[in-house]
Design goal:
This protein has 207 residues and is α/β, with parallel strands linked by helices. It contains 11 helices and 4 strands.
Length: 207
């Protein structure tokens, strides 16, 4: 099929429009999450700018981990329809909910630490952060949870975090070459949709 033929298929343009709208919705939710966090948790803006996107990222990580573990047992069509309905409910809740805490629930749990001071928390992020350990210390967390591509761009990030007593747990690493690189960088934890491959690479790399 040529490009011109593809452009003549209506479903192609519908898919393009859906992808653009989905991306815009996700970016909007991530951007506004900080405002919800500030209002709901009554925290300063500087902290809200970190907590909001982190909560959004936490929920995204949970959903990906769930599908990675149980994906083969799920009906993909039903799962996608259910996810779409849930997204719509969350967007409406975030936009129209009368209470900030409900808005925050719609977008996204730092409060766990208040309930259990011994709970180990980490800073989850997928964007380039300058000296992320500084943010971790401000939040009082014990780990960095970057996307696996992050430490490959910042020289010495893993070592610097370890010197400050922070663990580094990367996500979601699926390619064997990336798994091997994360293992060689001494990341403390590696989240992958292919744990059998990850375990084999870890044994080969670390013995």
């Amino acid at each position: 099929m040529s490009i011109s033929q593809l452009f003549q298929i209506p479903i192609f343009w519908i898919a393009i429009i859906l992808m653009v709208c989905a991306g815009a919705s996700e970016i909007s939710m991530a951007q506004w999450a900080s405002a919800y966090a500030e209002s709901a948790l009554n925290i300063p803006k500087s902290l809200g700018d970190i907590v909001g996107p982190c909560l959004f990222a936490v929920m995204m990580g949970i959903s990906r981990s769930f599908y990675g573990k149980y994906g083969e047992k799920l009906d993909l069509i039903k799962f996608m329809i259910g996810s779409g309905v849930l997204c719509l409910v969350c967007y409406l809740l975030a936009a129209l909910g009368p209470f900030p805490i409900l808005n925050l629930a719609g977008c996204s749990l730092l409060k766990v630490r208040r309930l259990d001071p011994n709970a180990v928390c980490g800073l989850l992020y997928d964007a380039m952060l300058y000296q992320p350990w500084d943010y971790a210390r401000q939040l009082g967390v014990q780990a960095l949870h970057p996307h696996f591509s992050e430490p490959t761009f910042v020289t010495g990030e893993v070592e610097a975090a370890h010197r400050l007593g922070l663990s580094v747990n990367v996500w979601t690493v699926n390619e064997e070459a990336d798994l091997r690189r994360m293992a060689e960088m001494n990341c403390d934890g590696i989240i992958s949709n292919y744990p059998d491959v990850a375990l084999r690479v870890l044994r080969e790399t670390r013995g």
